[in-house]
Design goal:
The structure is a single chain. This protein is an alpha/beta fold. It folds into 3 domains: 6-190, no CATH class; 216-417, no CATH class; 441-556, no CATH class. It is built from 26 helices and 10 strands. It has helices at 11-15, 33-48, 80-95, 100-111, 124-134, 147-163, 168-181, 192-204, 211-226, 232-256, 264-273, 289-303, 307-337, 339-348, 355-363, 367-385, 390-402, 407-421, 424-432, 441-449, 455-459, 484-487, 499-505, 514-518, 523-534, 539-556, and strands spanning 6-10, 18-22, 53-63, 72-78, 112-113, 116-117, 119-121, 182-189, 461-465, 494-498. The strands form 3 sheets. Strands 1-8-3-4-2-7 form a 6-stranded mixed sheet. Strands 5-6 form a two-stranded antiparallel sheet. A hairpin with a 2-residue loop joins strand 5 (112-113) and strand 6. Helix 8 (192-204) crosses helix 9, helix 11 packs across helix 13 and helix 15 (355-363) runs antiparallel to helix 16. The mean pLDDT is 90.
């Protein structure tokens, strides 16, 4: 059954006699539990209230049928997230039908077979979707490597849970509802130009669209309208790599537990902040993702009459963006396998502002030679001082993308940032003051200890006071005066201790902490316990230890 050019259709009529492919350049399946649960709740409420449910617009382009297939084949231009989710839900519901003949009939009509699905993402996503639908129980979740595959697996797992308590009558009622009463506004377009134009218009009118989709859409629009579609395939290819890289970055960041609230806007803005050369007139290191998108759109609009300039801009900008996204992904893969990098990336944790520099250096094979400099910048400027020199960092990132800087030149640039914000004199003053709550303290103490520490063991460590913050003893006996509230948080009075041990020793005097500290895996903490046990451990010894730590930092974190 063919789909009308533009009208409201039922989900059942869309799948009946038709097949859909999701091209490789499209976004991978990315609906989370939040979106899937919202759809489920909407369907439940609509069934309860005996009303149809409208799920928005879908855009298709008819393709030639495969071989002798009687099904009409459509390429999904817009709406694949909703279609895929409903497809998985229908599969779960149909599997619950007890009558084998009816079940097989429904599977054939709406799902297809493992090798010939009614809805098929191209590439390995299509193979995995087939496994989710027909071989779900044999999939080992921990073996799944792609983020889109995890989302598909979780979609079926959640829907199986939702339907578990439903009766056969309720199952049949929901299947009929999805088939006959879920409606979509369908646009069946004739060609790519019409598809891109319609997609852009729909999403410019307020429907939610993520920043990468918006950017791809606007570049496709200018290619279609002003370059005779000459760059359409190129744009699709570049964004396929960008989308895949972004999905892998999300998985890797969770594995490594770094990068905080990394999202699409992050990779989009990080690339922009290191790409001043593409936007010589409008580049600003404080532009938001939306402003950057408007800059891209405005720049295309300003040069659209010059075909050559428009083609050069789209090609060069997207090639660089693709390489940046791929480099970002490869960086995290390398971190995962490199213990020296794990130490700095996962224990110290670089501030997000430094990542445009880090990615550019990694892309140029210069990160290994500059990692210690970046570590020093992070420790001294970002962590100890607690400042975030955005302008300096993004300016340098952009320069790195424009010129082949030598290691010495990079060293000099980073040194200038350190001297501007955290000279040796200023660094010494910060280290000599109240340092307890500082972001660099734990890392410095771990480096001072020098022992091998896994990320897991490092994460379990806490900063403990030798002389307690709220002492249950008279600190004056140990040489402290009225200024103890200030003195207690200085470097000499701080050690690393495992959380479990720390909880057990409480606020007792140092001599009563010895047995606990001797159980620590931190060598310097055990050595401290030995010094306390030896006797005469007073404020003077704390001051001496602070001075040693300060001198260590000035020699260890030098650029």
């Amino acid at each position: 059954m063919s789909i009308s050019r533009s009208q409201t259709e039922k989900i059942g009529s869309i799948f009946n006699g038709n097949k859909f492919i999701i091209p490789t350049y499209q976004r991978k399946y990315s609906w989370t539990e939040i979106e899937r649960k919202a759809l489920w709740i909407d369907i439940e409420e609509s069934i309860r209230n005996d009303m149809n449910h409208f799920i928005g617009t879908l855009s298709f382009k008819q393709n030639e049928s495969e071989g002798l297939s009687v099904d009409t084949v459509y390429e999904i231009i817009d709406g694949q997230q909703r279609i895929t989710t409903l497809f998985i839900l229908l599969n779960v519901l149909i599997e619950r039908i007890t009558d084998e003949d009816i079940r097989d009939e429904q599977i054939t009509a709406f799902i297809g077979t493992k090798g010939n699905l009614k809805l098929k993402p191209l590439g390995i996503d299509g193979q995995f979707l087939g496994s989710v639908l027909f071989n779900f129980d044999n999939i080992i979740y921990n073996d799944i490597e792609k983020r889109s595959h995890k989302f598909m697996y979780n979609a079926k797992k959640e829907f199986k849970a939702y339907t578990n308590a439903m009766t056969l009558r309720e199952i049949e009622k929901m299947i009929k509802f999805i088939r006959d009463r879920i409606e979509v506004l369908v646009f069946n377009v004739e060609g790519q130009a019409q598809a891109v134009k319609m997609f852009s218009i729909i999403n410019d009118r307020g429907l939610p669209l993520r920043i990468l989709d918006k950017t791809k859409s606007i570049l496709m629009l200018y290619s279609t309208l002003h370059l005779n579609e000459e760059l359409n395939s190129f744009i699709n290819d570049q964004f396929e790599v960008i989308f895949d890289s972004y999905d892998e970055i999300l998985m890797l960041k969770d594995e490594l537990n770094i990068l905080g609230r990394f999202e699409e806007n992050t990779i989009f803005t990080h690339h922009y902040y290191s790409s001043k050369r593409f936007f010589p007139e409008s580049w600003n290191n404080r532009n938001s993702a939306d402003t950057i998108f408007e800059n891209i759109k405005g720049h295309c609009e300003s040069i659209k009459s010059n075909k050559s300039n428009l083609e050069i801009f789209i090609k060069e900008y997207l090639t660089d963006f693709k390489n940046f996204a791929h480099g970002y992904c490869d960086l995290l893969k390398t971190v995962k396998k490199n213990q020296d990098m794990i130490k700095v990336f996962c224990k110290l944790e670089f501030t997000a502002t430094l990542y445009p520099i880090i990615v550019r250096l990694f892309m140029q094979n210069k990160l290994a030679s500059t990692l210690s400099y970046l570590e020093t910048v992070e420790v001294r400027v970002y962590k100890t001082r607690g400042t975030n020199p955005i302008a300096d960092a993004y300016w340098l990132a952009s320069l790195l993308s424009e010129k082949d800087y030598s290691i010495d030149e990079i060293h000099e640039s980073l040194k200038n940032i350190v001297e501007k914000f955290m000279s040796d004199h200023t660094f010494r003053n910060y280290l000599d003051a109240d340092i307890y709550g500082n972001g660099a303290t734990k890392y410095i103490l771990a480096e001072y200890d020098g022992g091998p520490l896994s990320v897991e063991k490092y994460s379990a460590l806490q900063i403990e006071h030798i002389f307690s913050r709220e002492p249950e003893f008279d600190v004056r006996v140990y040489g402290f005066e009225q200024d103890y509230d200030y003195e207690k948080n200085r470097f000499g009075n701080l050690i690393l201790l495992e959380e479990k041990i720390n909880k057990s020793i409480g606020n007792s005097a140092p001599i009563n902490k010895v047995n606990g500290c001797l159980q620590s895996e931190i060598e310097s903490t055990r050595a401290m316990a030995g010094s306390i046990q030896k006797g005469s451990f007073l404020k003077e010894q704390v001051d001496n230890r602070r001075n040693k730590l300060i001198e260590y930092c000035l020699s260890r974190f030098v650029i």
